[in-house]
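Database export, one record per block. Field names are fixed; values are copied verbatim from the stored entry.
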Amino acid sequence: MEDNAAPSCRAEFMKKLLAWLQASRLMSQPYILLPLLFGQGLYVRHTGVWSIDLFMIGCCYSLLLQLYIVYANDYADEAVDKANTTFNVFSGGSRVLVEKKLTPQELRRGILWTLVLSMMLALVTGIVYARVGIIFFLLFSWGLLWAYSYPPFQLSYRGGGEWLQAIGVGIVLPLTGYYFQAGSLKVFPWVLLPFTVLLHFGAALVTTLPDEPSDRSGHKRTLAVRKGQIRVIRWIILLYGMSFFMVFVWILVFARSPRVFALSIFPALLAYMGLCWIRSEPVPGLQAMNWFVGLGVATVVLLMAGLCIMLWFFSG
């Protein structure tokens, strides 16, 4: 009996570990990490100096914040996710509750641990590195997620969830990243925030497209539900186009190496061109929608990654 018990325990452990990895949706980590690195990179470009300790703490902060977001969203959206038959790898949650790989109680404990560990990290950073503002950034980020998914606001169901995501990812995270390195926001280049907000508003719209049928039946008032798929797709194309225009202006006016800077965002531009090419085809549940959403996500990730590379490695 004992010989059989050990392999059984190992198998159960591996099963739970894989379930938690699925719940963690680590593919979404660049959505959090890159805006933080973008904010830090703006400071590096301005000063030419940075702290490796604060860089590593910022990476840990990014991971814990992302885990809190995906766990909390999964817990809040269980009913809608059960009805979702058009989900893909970028939308529809992790499915761990729907597939009964984790229980709601286990996911609640996961949410609690992310909250505890995040606050411990923020407190240590505030005390040791004199970055007390990180605590307030963390609390504000938690509050945005709560307003997005939970009562009394629950804006992802009432309308406005996409704007909350754009504010959180496009404003709060770059400011947080900059503050990690600078310790203040006195010389933050505020003129760049319209670019990050518009880009991530488009990204927020992209990931709602496959879920439109289940969101509609679950009374989740996303813009795709209220305005229709075709109109939202046109908005995405426009928002991304405006973002690229702002980046090109920034390159021409401020970049020390315009050609290298432009080369760094060329992969993102190719993804955007692919997005424009299939804009009239996407239907939830069909392959064209998967391609559209994948290219929409790739456009944002590649653009932010290219800008981060330029800010960190070509700041001189």
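Remark 1: The mean pLDDT is 87.
Remark 2: Residues 39 and 175 are 6 Å apart (CA to CA).
End of record.
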